[in-house]
Amino acid sequence: MKADPQGVLTGAHYLDGDHACCEGALAAGCRFVAGYPITPSTEVVERFAARIPLVGGIFIQMEDELASSIAILGAAWAGAKAMTVTSGPGLSLMMEHVGLAAMLETPCVFVDVQRGGPSTGLPTLPGQADMMQARWGSHGDYEIIALSPNSPQECFDLMINAFNLSEQYRVPVFFMMDECVGHMTEKVVIPEADEIEIYPRRFSAKPPSEYLPFESTEDLVPDIVKAGDGYRFHVTGLTHDEQGYPVMSAQCQEGLVRRLVDKIRKNADEIVLYKELDIKDAEVLVLSYGISQRVSLRGIEMAKKKGIKTGLFRPVIVWPFPEKRLKQLAKKVKAIVVVEMNYGQIYYEVERLVGSAVNVVLVPHGGGTVHDPEDICDAIVGAVK
Amino acid sequence: MSAKTTTAKKASAKKAAAEKAHPMEGLLRMDRIPHIWCPTCGIGTTVSCFISALQQIETPLEKVCVVSGIGCTGRVAGYIKLDSFHTTHGRAVPFATGLKLANPELKVVVFSGDGDLIAIGGNHFIHAARRNVDITVICVNNFNYAMTGGQVAPTTPLTAKTSTSPYGCYEQPFNIPYLAECCGAVYVARWTALHIRRQTKSMIEALNKPGFSVVEVITPCSTLYARRNKLGDGLNLMKFYHESAEIRHGADTRDLDITFQEKIICGKFVDRERPTCLEALEARHDKVLGDKYVKYGGVREDD
């Protein structure tokens, strides 16, 4: 279906990433945001608070991130498209409900504008060290989807993808921005509503007597219902059967958790999204995402001047990771240089996948500012020596 | 009468009884019975009162939702045949807040225990009361964390023994009606599990009351709390409620502290008017934005 024009601010704008993210959410059909102030993400909810009474929806500033992250789940079960917005310390508190969202297969979006950590860290300065937390942060086994925008335009565009994916796969989706992308201001073009494709909620067409809330279907994603429609359904964070009733057995656990994991893993080829640049004759491949990817472009340019053929590979959707494509590319190059604002997160994923086939080098950075392109260039040069 | 006829009669009576529906069957998930609660636990009684209240309100039942947290009372959502949500520990209230605000047509009830609502969920409880979110909270207070084996709770009376207060509780417990009133609840009542009719009546009133309403029900936990404190079995506890409960409607909530094995003051203490969270939100936006304000009525069918 097409986007609801009420939420689409069609035109060319000059927006920072946080504001663009908010507009992306509105265009995607998000009508419920629960948030708690935290730098550098607050502008997203500030804009939503100002905009939503003009669009039709609810903003509520909750008492903490625990509350925000479960209020959106309540709203989602009432039928609304919902998101919450935070940064590292808040994301740590939200992990409880990332798990619940995964377990109840509740469509929802968690925006994380990353700053330097751990703990309070660098509130106003960038980091990219929540990438593994997004994937593994809550206890137990589950899979999520995570996107990484690198510009205000992408903060708008990819928010649509984020909501669509959360609806299609009934999973919590992470929108992994960083302080630089959140606070940089660039041109953002918002298309007409009828040019924006929306994945509608997969409401079940079955009558209440035939409906099973967690039925194991062919694509592994059961259809959903919403409260108030007479289904009298039950959902629980306990391990549950297809009916949604708790069953404390290894067999039920296997059936449920296997499906929660497989619905992403087995559909990964459909989900993955990446961008490539100059990979044809590349001897070195730079793998980077978010703001680090943009800084990498300068490092690549410098390395090219030194005669090293360098390409770029950028996972736009970071989780699930574009494993297949990376394995193909690894066969063509001598080295892969991973540039990220942490001391090795996606780097270890790359090493796990292709470390035996190719030299994988990390250009680490603790956050607080972006990489020095010289360091990236040096790593590229060093990788093929 | 021959033995054969007697047996046949008995069998037919048994069959008739089996065919006769339980009066609450329509609102209980019979396929999940027997429930997990211990014999003489007060939660079942409270659930019966709640179902009885549901049968007496005018709200269509498909619009009523039950949200629970974690713990013995947290299991209530799983037994009531309505749209029901068994969420995380302490967070039933903010889940309910999202559910209610995103679809104002729903009547949302949080059914949970004292530890869930007042300890780990305490912050959510006070803020929902402050905002006057239009939900009803039924707080089953059994003075301890029963699901995990009977640990001390923020409601354990002074000197009472629990597994983590083996020498007696020395922390001042919360007085739930006082807490609720101070934070802004519009309806506050307290009963014991013995007060079937009064408890039911309060639940009806709370369900019909727009805003944040709280019904506290003091319930026996004979398996853990009563055993550790040598208070006898379920019947002894009911006798105790009978002897020590004092009904004092409109009592000052400051006077409602519960002390170990002394008087339990019950009644309806608060019943007042205050704009609900959503009413206040809409009034404000309406006043400031006028015609530009787009009121949200929840998700429409064609969305």
Structure description:
Chain A has 385 residues and is an alpha/beta fold. Chain A has two domains: 5-195, 3-Layer(aba) Sandwich (Rossmann fold); 274-384, Rossmann fold. Chain A is built from 13 helices and 16 strands. Chain A has helices at 17-28, 42-55, 65-77, 88-104, 131-136, 152-169, 179-183, 250-265, 268-271, 290-305, 323-330, 346-354, 373-384, and strands spanning 11-16, 30-35, 58-61, 81-86, 108-116, 122-126, 145-147, 172-178, 185-190, 234-236, 274-277, 284-288, 310-315, 317-319, 335-339, 359-363. In chain A, the strands form three sheets. In chain A, strands 2, 3, 4, 5, 6, 7, 8 and 14 form an eight-stranded mixed beta sheet that branches. Chain A has a five-stranded mixed beta sheet with strand order 11-13-12-15-16, with helices on both faces. A two-stranded antiparallel ribbon of chain A has the order 1-9. In chain A, α1 runs parallel beside α2 (42-55). Chain A is globular, with a radius of gyration of 21 Å. The termini of chain A are far apart. Chain B has a single domain (39-144, 153-290), classed as Thiamin diphosphate (ThDP)-binding fold, Pyr/PP domains (Rossmann fold, 3-Layer(aba) Sandwich), CATH 3.40.50. The radius of gyration of chain B is 21 Å and the shape is globular. The model of chain B has no long low-confidence stretch (mean pLDDT 94).
